[in-house]
């Protein structure tokens, strides 16, 4: 067994009774000063730069959102403008097509009328030519009939 002096044991038991969990001596204000100094140092070194970076980031995000919103509004305005111009262009193109179709139909109808008139003229010319040829053929036939009838008379009377 270890023999410890009795005075050491008594001294250890008395020191425990004096201290306890909290010692209110000169170390307490020193610890408070250390805590405050550490808070100030952390605030200067860490918290302010981090909060500045976060503020700058927030400002950048707000500016980006504002710029994006403005760009979106401008894009929507341009889209509406181009859609209106496209609608007007389509309407003009449809009007142009309708006018071209009307003009083409008018030209076709004029040409058809001219062709019909030419056909009618050709038919009437052919009809008049046929009538003239018919009359000439009838006249020739009449003369031939007269000649033949005269020849028949002569042969019948002459015998």
Automatic annotation (TrEMBL):
Gene Ontology annotations for the cellular component aspect, listed alphabetically: plasma membrane; proton-transporting ATP synthase complex
Residues passing through the membrane, by range: 27-47
Membership in a protein family: Belongs to the ATPase B chain family.
Species this chain originates from: Inkyuleea mariana
Short name of one Pfam family: ATP-synt_B
Protein location: Cell membrane; Membrane
Presence of keyword Transmembrane helix: yes
Oligomeric form and interacting partners: F-type ATPases have 2 components, F(1) - the catalytic core - and F(0) - the membrane proton channel. F(1) has five subunits: alpha(3), beta(3), gamma(1), delta(1), epsilon(1). F(0) has four main subunits: a(1), b(1), b'(1) and c(10-14). The alpha and beta chains form an alternating ring which encloses part of the gamma chain. F(1) is attached to F(0) by a central stalk formed by the gamma and epsilon chains, while a peripheral stalk is formed by the delta, b and b' chains.
Protein's name in the database: ATP synthase CF0 subunit II
Coiled coil, from the record: 72-151
Annotated function: Component of the F(0) channel, it forms part of the peripheral stalk, linking F(1) to F(0). The b'-subunit is a diverged and duplicated form of b found in plants and photosynthetic bacteria.
Transmembrane helix as UniProt keyword: yes
Annotated GO MF terms: proton-transporting ATP synthase activity, rotational mechanism; proton-transporting ATPase activity, rotational mechanism
Alphabetical keyword list: ATP synthesis, Cell membrane, CF(0), Coiled coil, Hydrogen ion transport, Ion transport, Membrane, Plastid, Transmembrane, Transmembrane helix, Transport
InterPro entries: ATP_synth_b (IPR034679), ATP_synth_B-like_membr_sf (IPR028987), ATP_synth_b/b'su_bac/chlpt (IPR002146), ATP_synthase_B_chain (IPR050059)
Signal sequence region: none
Membrane topology, as annotated: Single-pass membrane protein
């Amino acid at each position: 067994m270890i023999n410890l002096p009795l005075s050491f044991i008594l001294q250890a038991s008395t020191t425990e009774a004096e201290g306890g969990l909290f010692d209110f001596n000169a170390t307490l204000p020193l610890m408070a000063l250390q805590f405050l100094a550490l808070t100030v140092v952390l605030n200067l070194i860490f918290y302010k730069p981090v909060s500045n970076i976060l503020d700058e980031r927030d400002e950048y995000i707000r500016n980006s959102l504002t710029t994006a919103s403005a760009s979106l509004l401008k894009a929507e305005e341009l889209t509406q403008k181009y859609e209106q111009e496209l609608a007007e262009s389509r309407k003009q193109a449809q009007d142009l097509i309708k006018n071209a179709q009307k003009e083409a139909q008018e030209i076709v109808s004029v040409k058809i009328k001219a062709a019909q008139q030419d056909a009618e003229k050709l038919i009437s010319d052919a009809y008049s030519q046929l009538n003239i040829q018919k009359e000439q053929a009838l006249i020739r036939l009449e003369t031939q009939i007269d000649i033949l009838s005269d020849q028949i008379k002569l042969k019948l009377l002459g015998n």
